[in-house]
Amino acid sequence: MRATRRTAGAPRPDPADLDHTQVDPTELDRVPPPDARADGPAGRPTSPPPAAIAADPADGPSGFRTWHPVGAGGMGLVALATHPRWPGRWLALKRMAEGYRASPSLRARFVQESALVLRVHHPHLVRGVDHGTDEDGPWLAMEYIPGPPPPPIGWPNGLPDPPLSLQRRTDDRTRLTAEWAIDLGLKLAGAVATLHARGIVHGDIKPHNVLCDPTGEPILIDFGLARPVRPSGVEARSVRAATVHYAAPELQTDPDTADPRADVYSLAGTLVYALTGRLPAFCPADQIPEQVRDVLTRATSRDPADRPVGVMAFATALADCRTGRPAAPAPSPATPGVGGLIVRRRPAVAPPGPSGMRIRRRPGTPESDR
Fold first, then answer.
1. Residue 137, class by beta-carbon neighbours within 10 Å (0-12 exposed, 13-18 middle, 19+ buried)?
2. Closest CA to 248 of 294, 286, 201
3. In 74-188, where do the E strands start and end?
4. 79, 59 Cβ separation under 8 angstroms
């Protein structure tokens, strides 16, 4: 199936005109092969660079020309780039920060991340283009995912819009409603299930690692802490770098015991933030919309045994919320908040209003993974 390319300059559809799409969690395992998705580096609509850019000789290591930094975190730096080998395409070029290149173990982890990005495919996972090593160390070229317009003040003219993370979208705009959060969760659950089917735990799901593409679709990025379900000692120690506010407790205390339920915790915590703008461990349960309160509270239990048994079970519970399963009773003032912490009960707030971004299915792409 082919994704529909959006014509440059065409008006964005009115969110009120977009309908939600029912997602069957049992069908999250089907994805068209990469060669069936034609637009962009790996199938997503993009804004092609001017012809002159693709024709210019590249001036950086390995032939890349970098145009603007777009992200930094952990041990990596990401820049907007082009390369003559992929004419007409914007790329996200990730490199190791200079201070980390001398570490053999960190270089090996970067190469492992690169191989994983190129090997695993799902409509809501970032798609790799190529990877390699040059005089500046290892590099990973990925599809570039511009955010919805307009770009922020000061962004250079002539470049595609900068990426927009779910973190920044939540901080800058209105919160998601429960229905839209369910759609978001189901799409990301399909992406995470693809990793789990290959024996991989993402290990760092958080709002900052979810990008919103120009049509509002969520894309999970950054496999820098991804690891096998049963890690070696070196991998277990490195996973302690996961973001503390979204990492499951077992990842912080005994990473050897962590399994896919750790990703369930982080995914649920990400949805809590998108709904409330509050860190999951410090969000009173009564601030979460009643429609999804019970599911998200259970999924962020400190004890893995109290969470859904896997991401597919979590997706099924979310889908049941949308199809009308009765909501859990309101918590008492002493009820633990999300993440199992006792928090001060605050006055109930009005349900979130309509969001400025509608999460919807990309045209021509099923809600599934391969």
1. middle
2. 201
3. 76-82, 91-96, 128-134, 137-143
4. no
Could you tell me whether strands 137-143 and 91-96 are parallel, antiparallel, or unpaired per DSSP bridges? Answer: antiparallel
Burial class (CB in 10 A: 0-12, 13-18, 19+), 161: middle
Confidence band, pLDDT 50/70/90 cuts, at residue 59:
low
Calculate the dihedral angle through the C-alpha atoms of 261, 265, 271, 273, rounding to the nearest 10 degrees: -160
Tokens of 33: 């092969």
Q: For residues 236 and 157, what is the distance between their CA atoms, to the nearest angstrom? A: 44
d(CA 90, CA 47): 8
Backbone angles phi, psi at 331, to 5 degrees: -70, 155
Q: How confident is the model at residue 250 (pLDDT cuts 50, 70, 90)?
A: confident
Alpha carbon distance 211, 219 (integer Å): 5
User: What is the enclosing helix (H) or strand (E) of 70?
Assistant: strand 65-73
Q: What is the pTM of this model?
A: 0.73
The 3-state DSSP class for residue 135 equals coil
Residues 274 and 184: their CA atoms lie apart, in Å, by 10
Question: What CATH number belongs to 34-143?
Answer: 3.30.200.20
Q: Region 117-141: what's the mean pLDDT?
A: 94
Which tops the pLDDT comparison, 228 or 125? 125
Residue that wins the pLDDT comparison between 63 and 14? 63
Task: Give the Cα-Cα-Cα angle 226, 228, 232 (nearest 5 degrees).
Answer: 105
Distances (CA, A) of 304 to 263, 280, 281, 336: 11, 16, 15, 16
The single-letter code of the amino acid at 322 is R
Contact 18, 358 (CB under 8 A): yes
Reading phi first (left if > 0) and then psi (alpha if -120 to 50, else beta), residue 30 is in: beta
Nearest to 139 by CA among 239, 63, 87, 210: 63
What SS3 class is residue 228?
A: strand
The two tokens of residue 310 are: 């896997």
- Whether residue 45 contacts residue 8, with contact meaning beta carbons closer than 8 Å, is answered with no
